[in-house]
Amino acid sequence: QKGMEVYGHEYAMHFPWHEWPAGRNKKLSPLHSRLQDAGAQFGAYNGWERANWFAQAGDDTSEESTQTWDRAGPWERRIREECEAVRDNCGILAITGFSRYHVTGRGAREFVDGLTASRLPKPGRISLAYFPDNRGRILTEMSVMAWSEEEVGLITAATAQWHDMEILTRQAPEGITITDNTKEMECLLVTGPNARKILEPITEGHDLSASWLSISMEGTVAGHKCALARVSFAGELSWEIHCSNDAAPAIWDAITVAGAKPFGMWALNSLRIEKGYRAWKGDLSTDYSLLEGGLDRFVKLDKEVDFPGKAAMLAEKQQGVAKRFVTLTVNAGACDAPYMSTLWQGDEVVGETTSGAWGYRVNASIALGMLRTDLAVPGTEIEVEIYGQRHKAVVQEDQPLWDPKNARLRA
User: Fold this and answer.
1) Regions of the chain short of the pLDDT cut 70
2) Could you say which of 98, 190, 362, 390 is the most buried, measured as most Cβ atoms within 10 Å of its Cβ?
3) What is the per-residue pLDDT for 210?
4) What contacts 141, CB < 8 A, 6 or more positions away?
5) What is the CA 84 to chain-centroid distance, rounded?
6) What is the pLDDT of residue 133?
7) One fold for 96-180+289-320 and 184-259
8) What is the pLDDT of residue 71?
9) CA 294, CA 278: separation in Å to the nearest integer?
10) Dihedral over Cα of 270, 228, 101, 113: its sign
C-alpha cells in the first residue's frame, strides 16, 4: 500500500507540512489515545505515529490545509505556543519508536568503540557517538550507554532502525549478540525550566540534581520503574524518561496533571535548529565527512583503536575541508528553507541547506547547511534559494543561537 503510494506520487508536489495517508496507524504508541484526546495531529516516523502538533477546537486539520509551502498554516500558532511552553514552563513529548539496541558479549564495549570516531562514556553517563565510513563520512549518530565491558546500550533515530542494525550486525564478531528492543519501550521528553519542579514530587530513587549527560537506571516516576537520562534535543533543562510501554500512560498522566504541556515533533524541530542540533539523513549523512559536519569535538583521532575512516580524517584534517557546517539566519518571507535549498553568492553555487525552520525563541528563520569554507565566516552575506526565490542570509557564529553558553540545559 505504502509502496504504491510512494511510486504513484513520485512526481507529485511534496509539501513540507503534508503527510501522505497510506499505511498509517500501523505502529502506535501506548499513549496514542491520550495524544488523540489532546488534539494530536500525527506524522509517521518509520511507521510510528508521533504527534506533529496539537490542534485546538476550530483549527483546520484537513489534509487540504497542509498542501502549502507557507509557514503560516493552522499549525503555526500552535507550534509557537508549544515552543513558548517549553521555553517558559515545561513541555512533554512522546518520542515513540526510538530505535534501541542491546549489545552484549565478551568484548561488547571494544566492538562498539571500534566502530565510532568518538570515545565511549563511562558507566552512568550517556553521550553521542558518530560512526564514520571508510572515507570519514557520517554513517550515523547514536546515543551510547556503556554499562560494562560486556554490555552496551545504543539509541538511534526511528528511521535509522534497519540501517543502523546493519552497521552493527555486519561487523559483529562471533560471541557478540545484538538485540533490537525498539518495540518494548517508550520515551518521554520532559523539558523546560520547570521540568525538575514537576518531576520532583513524583520521582523516587533518581537524583534530579545529577549533572548533564548523566543517566540513572534505578528509580521510579509516578510509581513505575524507568530510566532517566539528562539529555535534550530541545536546548532546555530536560530529562528523557525511558520506560516500559505498560508504565507510559501513568507516567504521562502524572506529568501532564502536574502542568507539563504536550508538544509535537514540529515544535521540537524548531527548538533543535535554534541550538544547531543535527538530524539524521538531513544534516547527518554520507554526503559529508565528520569534519565538514562540524563534529570535530566528537572525533578522537588520538584513539588507539583504528576505527573506520581514521586515516581519511587525518588526511582531511591536514589538507582542510572544502565545506563547513554553518547556521544561517534568513530573511525568508513566508517560507522557511527546505532540505537541499541552494546557497548562492552572486551567480555562483556555494553550498546547500540541510534543514530549516522558524525559531520561535529567537524570532527568526534559521537554516543549517554546508557552505564553502572560505565563506563560512560569521557575518558573511549570501543568498538562499527557497522555492525558486532568492533570500538574503547571514552566517552566524559557530555556537547555538539560543542559549549559546548552554546555561539553561545545565541548570
Assistant:
1) none
2) 190
3) 96
4) 128, 129, 130, 131, 156, 157, 278, 280, 284
5) 19
6) 98
7) no
8) 97
9) 10
10) positive
Q: What is the identity of the amino acid at 392?
A: K
- Domain 184-259, architecture per CATH: 2-Layer Sandwich (3.30)
DSSP single-letter state for residue 289: B
Q: Which amino acid is at 14?
A: H
> What's residue 29's pLDDT?
97
Nearest to 133 by CA among 7, 286, 25, 17: 286
pLDDT score of 380: 99
Domain ranges across the chain: 96-180+289-320, 184-259
> 257, 198 in Cβ contact below 8 A?
no
**How many residues in the chain?**
411
Helix (H) or strand (E) holding 74: helix 74-88
Q: Which residue has the cell 548533564?
A: 212
CATH topology of domain 96-180+289-320: Alpha-Beta Plaits (3.30.70)
Looking at residue 274, the DSSP 8-state letter turns out to be: H
- Helix (H) and strand (E) counts for the chain? 9, 21
Tell me the sheet residues that pair with 151: 104, 148
Neighbours of 24 (CB within 10 A): 15
Burial class (CB in 10 A: 0-12, 13-18, 19+), 359: buried
In this structure, which amino acid lies at residue 24? R
249, 31 contact by CB (below 8 A) = yes
pLDDT score recorded for residue 398: 96
The phi-psi region of residue 10 (left if phi > 0; otherwise alpha if psi is between -120 and 50; otherwise beta) is alpha
C-alpha R_g of the chain: 21
Nearest C-alpha neighbor of 235 from the set 408, 358, 362, 53: 408
Contact 192, 89 (CB under 8 A): yes
Q: Is the dihedral of CA 178, 180, 184, 186 positive or negative?
A: positive
d(CA 284, CA 277): 10
CB-CB contact of 192 with 236 (8 Å):
yes
Per-residue confidence (pLDDT) for residue 75, from 0 to 100? 98
User: What's the mean pLDDT when you consider all of the chain?
Assistant: 97
CB 48 within 8 A of CB 186: no
Q: What is the pLDDT of residue 297?
A: 94
**Measured between alpha carbons, how far is 177 from 231 in angstroms, rounded to an integer?**
27
What pairs with residue 156 in β-bridges? 99
Predicted pLDDT of residue 309: 97
Residue in the block written with cell 573506520: 308
Cα 358 → chain centroid: 16
